[in-house]
Amino acid sequence: MKLYEISNSIMAALGETGEEFSQETLDNLAALEMQLEHKIENVLRYRQELIAGADAVDNEVKRLKEKADALRRKEQWLKNYVLNAMQQVGVERVTTPLFNAAIALAPLSVEFDGSAEIPEGYQREEIRISLDKKKVLADFKAGIELPLGLGVKQNKYLRVT
User: Fold this and answer.
1) Does residue 72 lie within any of the structural domains?
2) What is the pLDDT along the chain (161 residues), one digit of tens a residue?
3) Which domain does 17 fall in, by range?
4) N vs C: which end of the chain shows fewer Cβ within 10 Å?
């Protein structure tokens, strides 16, 4: 029986009219409660398997990302290695059947060592506005009426230990 079917059966049994339940109904409820507990335990076991699977995937992603980063660092090192070798001997261009390599000028870039303040006229101001959620919660708890559009809610969640 599925979890929702067990829940529906319990609700149907509890919905019987009358002041007292018959022994048969009580026995049925006890059996349904045992089924419910067993089903919940199995669902939570499956949930644990999903968590373990997701963690394993996360670990593999992390391992593969580290490997990709290492390959990119090695690629960049080899590129600099070739650049230095060509500069050392004064060669500007090398052509092979597979590759063409040429020393080129990179686009201009700005250097700023940070030892002094940024000069006036070269500053850019960035303003970022965000909701102060801690203040909203504090005002709500203090009984202060919140502006239109702001609210506080409290959801329920399942704590599994």
Assistant:
1) yes
2) 888 888 888 888 777 655 677 788 788 888 888 888 999 999 999 999 999 999 999 999 999 999 999 999 999 999 999 999 999 999 999 999 999 999 999 998 888 888 888 888 888 989 999 999 999 999 999 999 999 999 999 888 777 77
3) 3-107
4) C
**Residue 129 lies inside a defined structural domain of this protein:** no
Token reading at 48: 């644990």
Q: What one-character-per-residue DSSP string does 26-61 give?
A: HHHHHHHHHHHHHHHHHHHHHHHHHHHHHHHHHHHH
Q: ∠ CA 92-98-99 to the nearest 5 degrees?
A: 25
| Phi, psi at 100, each rounded to 5° | -120, 125
Per the structure, the count of domains in the chain is 1
Give phi and psi for 150, each to the nearest 5.
Answer: -105, 145
